[in-house]
Amino acid sequence: MSKKPKHELENNKLNKRLRHAVGDAINDFNMIEAGDKIMVCLSGGKDSYSLLDILRQLQASAPIDFELVAVNLDQKQPGFPEHVLPAYLDSIGVPYRIVEEDTYSVVKRVIEEGKTTCSLCSRLRRGVLYRVAKELGCTKIALGHHRDDILQTLFLNMFYGGKLKAMPPKLVSDNGEHIVIRPLAYVKEKDLERYAELKQFPIIPCNLCGSQPNLQRQVIKEMLNDWDKRFPGRIESMFSALQNVVPSHLADTELFDFAGIVRGQTLKHGGDLAFDRENVPAQFSGSPEDGSEAAPPRKVINILASKPK
Ligand code: SF4
């Protein structure tokens, strides 16, 4: 029997890891249901190409049927290579719509030179994408944000916004009409970089608008990358923390009824550790310390299971 070359084995492993991470997120948050029509937002960057690619793989094997339609918004930035995405989407045979909307001129007209343009630009883009989802009759909108985007947002909100808030894997759109999903929520950015190289996606540069990168996000990204190198496992542990929130041990009076605490109540989440040294495990185990409050994730369908014969 011929042995597969090492790089081929590694590539298969990467593909399998990505499929499982995406499948797990879809299952844990019930992101996709039978009959869904999912609009996959494609920017031309590594994340959205990978998202579409993995969703197509899952679509081919999943035990339920759902549709995918790729949508790209051509914002009329100077130098945007219009032919790249249609050529790619034709070559893989996925249904798609390219929407042309000159948000670039609007942003340039409204925002003063030298000021950051991203927040208005994203707001305009969101509005167009919601409208298109409605026109196409889509039930879900899939975005390509990954695990590292979610953690960066958590720190941005903590450092600059005074909020313990990240980026949800699933939410209802601002107008209440659409469900937005982030199937890459469990995927590491590094894996997406490798996958995009492996698949040779025709990447479109993201700096065509001439906007400066968000410096605060860049600094946080570098901080997280540095931690990842120096303290292996820390990033994974931080992401697990987002899935193991203990409101009684934070300080939000909206989230937990501190005023209603009375004597004689039973201990929750290990009770009061104020007088003890908290015993934090060296390696995060992923389960709460008393095991009593954790609800099992609601598994409606298993997207990773095979199609029924
Ligand atoms: S980088 Fe440019 S295209 Fe992207 S959100 Fe900011 S202004 Fe818009």
TrEMBL record:
It is found in: Cytoplasm. One of its GO terms (biological process) is tRNA thio-modification. The keyword Iron applies. Residues 37-201 form the tRNA(Ile)-lysidine/2-thiocytidine synthase N-terminal domain. Residues 280-309 are annotated as: Disordered. Keywords: 4Fe-4S, ATP-binding, Cytoplasm, Iron, Iron-sulfur, Magnesium, Metal-binding, Nucleotide-binding, RNA-binding, Transferase, tRNA processing, tRNA-binding. It is an enzyme of class 2 (transferase). It comes from the Bacteria. Binds 1 [4Fe-4S] cluster per subunit. The cluster is chelated by three Cys residues, the fourth Fe has a free coordination site that may bind a sulfur atom transferred from the persulfide of IscS. GO terms for molecular function: 4 iron, 4 sulfur cluster binding; ATP binding; magnesium ion binding; sulfurtransferase activity; tRNA binding. Its main location: cytoplasm. InterPro entries: Rossmann-like_a/b/a_fold, TilS/TtcA_N, tRNA_Cyd_32_2_STrfase, tRNA_thiolation_TtcA_Ctu1. GO terms for cellular component: cytoplasm. Its EC number is 2.8.1.-. Pathway: tRNA modification. HAMAP family: TtcA. Catalyzes the ATP-dependent 2-thiolation of cytidine in position 32 of tRNA, to form 2-thiocytidine (s(2)C32). The sulfur atoms are provided by the cysteine/cysteine desulfurase (IscS) system. Belongs to the TtcA family. This is tRNA-cytidine(32) 2-sulfurtransferase. It comes from Neisseria shayeganii 871.
